[in-house]
């Protein structure tokens, strides 16, 4: 097969393509022929085999044919699976026209250093009227046309300016991890290379969403992503004034004018979109083997997982103890602590025994857990410094019942109830909650041997989640909270989330992604406000506020307030035990 493509690009552009992409007449012809043969051998993918459609994928992979095949495979499977973006692509649809005319997704008429400039404003729509999928669908239609008409975009790539002005909670709710993952997947498998992704007008609390975006990116794309919290100064510093729209203090057409231009442009392509709709993978195409395209599917560094369907108890027997075995294990640990003086470990028997029981007397695991615990005490200053039970934040949170333990155990397991969303986040931070809670757990582990042996049941009540609370849930903070759970000396046997708003699933999935498989299996999530905790804990033990017959939350809160104050000297002494 011979190539019918005739390159008419300026010599300067051809030289760039040759030096950077490895594109020559010979290479182009050979690679196009190879892709056409591959497309014929994979008819169920329904690939557009005209050279003008294949060439962008080759240029996007620097003429690595195998990578181009992977990208084509992902692209056409995406067109099949993302029906919300690739079905009914009628430019005259009301939602598409409204997206275009408000300037939600446009390209500038002039390139910057030969790169196509795309402006995306995903937060300009009213989330009660339009959906984020409307923005994405419209944008992918714009990109289809722009890349066909502007060959420079295929060679030099694209700069994306993402303007987060007017971000509200309604927009944030639409940005689920699954949707973010699919967006990043489209960026990385579309037929143009993103050279820079510049977020502008990003409020500080937007970091939560940005962290999710980055978790799905390849290292290369992550290195090309930048965030400007100070208006749009990053754009005006980067690009020439004559290129930029007036909305960004430039001399170019306004985004509204560009929106009108793209409205008319897409309508002129109406027949093309009708014809193009048939090019997508057929249902015969299932997942390829991992070895075939393991490097192309966009997966987070840490996988996202769905909620467990129920609570699982430990299936292995509890550790068997005898005096001789305990002594032998404790002596081994003490010798190890002496060999590691920089960890500054409390090596009294009662403290080491807690870790041994937690790890079922596996000495290797016990040493690792102890090491992680004392490193955590050193590194998490907000949690492990100034642990004064009389401080305003600790007393305030404990007395309002943010973190407490029931007085009686359920099937030998202490029951911890955490209510992190009842506080005023402008007064008490999430770190304050974790700090107060860790102090409660310290006392629990010291006083209640059943907690050491049988583990604990944790109830997390997410009633009344506020927008300000959501802004605290950065990925680093969620990660260290899980680390505290997994390295503390009480084994969580059941973790039950109740009164969970649907939009909090975003953060629960992130939390789970940092957990061990065993811990994930012990989680249960309940969105129904009518769910009764009596399904988990004996009614006689629960506070009346949860349909039980036990002491009230106020009584339990006062009990734990007094209990913590009685440990004031212990907390003061304990602060010195941490790794150097």
Write the layout of secondary structure elements.
Blueprint lengths: L10 H11 L3 H17 L9 H10 L4 H17 L1 H4 L7 H8 L3 E3 L8 E5 L11 H18 L1 H6 L1 E6 L5 H6 L2 H13 L4 E7 L6 H9 L3 H5 L1 E3 L5 H6 L16 H14 L1 H7 L13 H4 L29 H17 L9 H10 L4 H17 L1 H4 L7 H8 L3 E3 L9 E4 L11 H18 L1 H6 L1 E6 L5 H5 L3 H13 L4 E7 L6 H9 L3 H4 L2 E3 L27 H14 L1 H7 L6
Parallel strand pairs: 2-3, 3-4, 4-5, 7-8, 8-9, 9-10
Antiparallel strand pairs: 1-2, 6-7
Helix pairs in contact: 2-3, 6-7, 6-14, 17-18, 21-22, 25-26
Counting helices, strands and paired strands, the structural category is alpha/beta
% residues in beta strands:
5-15%
Total E-strand runs: 10
The second-level CATH architecture of the domain at 379-574 is 3-Layer(aba) Sandwich
Radius of gyration: 29 Å
Briefly, what CATH class of the domain at 379-574?
Alpha Beta
Helical content, roughly?
A: 40-55%
CATH superfamily of the domain at 379-574: CRAL-TRIO lipid binding domain
The coarse silhouette is elongated
Quote the average pLDDT.
85
Q: Given the structure, what is the number of helices?
A: 29
Terminus-to-terminus distance: 69 Å
User: Main beta sheet, described?
Assistant: 5 strands, mixed
Question: Numbering strands along the chain, what is their spatial order in the largest sheet?
Answer: 1-2-3-4-5
Stretches where pLDDT falls below 50 for ≥5 residues?
A: 287-319
């Amino acid at each position: 097969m011979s190539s019918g493509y005739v390159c008419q690009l300026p010599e300067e552009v051809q030289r760039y393509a040759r030096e950077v992409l490895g594109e020559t007449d010979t290479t182009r012809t050979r690679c196009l022929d190879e892709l056409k043969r591959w497309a014929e051998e994979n008819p169920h993918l329904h690939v557009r085999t005209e050279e003008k459609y294949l060439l962008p994928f080759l240029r996007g992979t620097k003429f690595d044919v195998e990578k181009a095949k992977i990208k084509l495979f992902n692209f056409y499977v995406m067109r099949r699976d993302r029906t919300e973006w690739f079905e009914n692509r009628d430019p005259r649809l009301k939602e598409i026209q409204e997206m275009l005319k408000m300037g939600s997704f446009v390209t500038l008429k002039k390139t910057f250093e030969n790169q196509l400039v795309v402006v995306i404003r995903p937060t300009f729509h009213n989330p009660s009227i339009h959906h984020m999928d409307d923005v994405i669908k419209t944008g992918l239609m714009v990109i289809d046309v722009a890349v066909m008409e502007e060959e420079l975009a295929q060679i030099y790539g694209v700069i994306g300016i993402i303007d987060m002005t007017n971000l509200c909670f309604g927009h944030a709710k639409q940005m689920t991890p699954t949707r973010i993952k699919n967006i990043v997947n489209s960026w990385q498998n579309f037929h143009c290379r993103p050279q820079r992704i510049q977020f502008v007008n990003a409020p500080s609390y937007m970091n939560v969403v940005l962290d999710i975006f980055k978790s799905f990116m390849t290292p290369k794309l992550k290195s090309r992503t930048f965030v400007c919290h100070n208006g749009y100064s990053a754009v005006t510093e980067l690009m020439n004034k004559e290129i930029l729209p007036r909305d960004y203090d430039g001399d170019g057409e306004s985004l509204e004018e560009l929106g009108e231009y793209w409205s008319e442009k897409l309508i002129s392509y109406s027949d093309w979109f009708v014809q193009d709709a048939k090019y997508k993978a057929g249902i015969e195409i299932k997942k390829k083997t991992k070895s075939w395209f393991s490097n192309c599917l966009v997966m987070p560094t840490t996988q996202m997982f769905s909620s467990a369907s129920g609570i699982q108890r430990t299936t292995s027997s509890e550790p068997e103890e005898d005096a001789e075995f305990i002594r032998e294990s404790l002596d081994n640990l003490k010798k190890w602590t002496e060999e590691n003086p920089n960890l500054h470990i409390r090596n009294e028997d009662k403290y080491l025994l807690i870790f041994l029981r937690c790890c079922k007397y596996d000495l290797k695991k016990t040493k690792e857990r102890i090491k992680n615990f004392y490193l955590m005490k050193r590194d998490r200053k907000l949690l492990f410094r100034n642990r004064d039970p009389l401080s305003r934040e600790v007393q305030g949170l404990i007395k309002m019942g943010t973190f407490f333990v029931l007085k009686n155990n359920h099937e030998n397991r202490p029951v911890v109830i955490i209510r992190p969303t009842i506080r005023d986040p402008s007064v008490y931070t999430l770190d304050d909650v974790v700090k107060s809670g860790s102090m409660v757990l310290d006392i629990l582990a010291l006083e209640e041997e059943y907690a050491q042996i049988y583990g604990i049941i944790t109830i997390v009540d997410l009633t009344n989640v506020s927008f300000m609370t959501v802004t605290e849930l950065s990925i680093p903070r969620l990660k260290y909270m899980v680390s505290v759970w997994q390295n503390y000396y009480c084994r969580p046997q059941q973790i039950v989330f109740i009164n969970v708003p649907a939009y909090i699933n975003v953060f629960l999935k992130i939390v789970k992604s940092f957990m061990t498989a065993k811990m994930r299996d012990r989680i249960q999530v309940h969105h129904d406000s009518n769910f009764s905790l009596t399904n988990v804990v004996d009614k006689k033990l629960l506070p009346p506020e949860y349909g039980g017959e036990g002491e009230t939350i106020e009584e339990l809160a006062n009990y734990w307030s007094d209990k913590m104050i009685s440990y004031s000297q212990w907390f003061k002494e304990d602060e010195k035990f941490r790794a150097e």
